[in-house]
Write a structure and sequence with these properties.
Structural class: mainly alpha
Number of domains: 1
Strand order of the largest sheet: 1-2
Shape: globular
CATH topology: Transferase(Phosphotransferase), domain 1
Largest sheet: 2 strands, antiparallel
Strand content: 5-15%
Helix content: 40-55%
Order of helices and strands: HHHHHHEE
CATH architecture: Orthogonal Bundle
CATH superfamily: Transferase(Phosphotransferase) domain 1
Length: 118
């Protein structure tokens, strides 16, 4: 859940992009950005900046991929991708893929393989 939603703000495209970032972060780390067993603990962790960035947790991942995930997970919605298309393009570039803009299908000859286990 995006930090702004924890404070009762309305869901936006940027909060959805944050959620995609959380999913990607979890897929490559098997952990979450913040620790907390209750909503209050999660709020507190976000408020105090107690987060572990992907670049700090998985240093061997390709930097463009890490940058894309960290951008999606910015605590400031204005610093996240403006559109889902921008995020898709960034991830495709990070993984060595190109997006066919007509069909919206990612293609490439030698995509980067991410090791999912920590």
């Amino acid at each position: 859940m995006a930090p702004e939603l924890l404070w009762g703000e309305k869901a936006t495209l940027q909060s959805d992009i944050y959620s995609i970032g959380v999913l990607l972060y979890h897929l490559v780390t098997r952990k979450y950005l913040v620790k907390g067993r209750t909503l209050g603990e999660v709020r507190s962790a976000h408020a105090s900046g107690e987060v572990t960035l992907l670049r700090d947790r998985r240093t061997h991942l390709p930097q463009p991929f890490v940058w894309a995930v960290d951008t999606a997970l910015s605590p400031d919605p204005g610093e996240r991708f403006a559109t889902a298309g921008q995020m898709l393009n960034s991830l495709n570039a990070a993984l060595g893929l190109e997006t066919n803009t007509v069909a919206g299908v990612a293609t490439g000859t030698a995509p980067v393989r991410l090791q999912l286990d920590a």
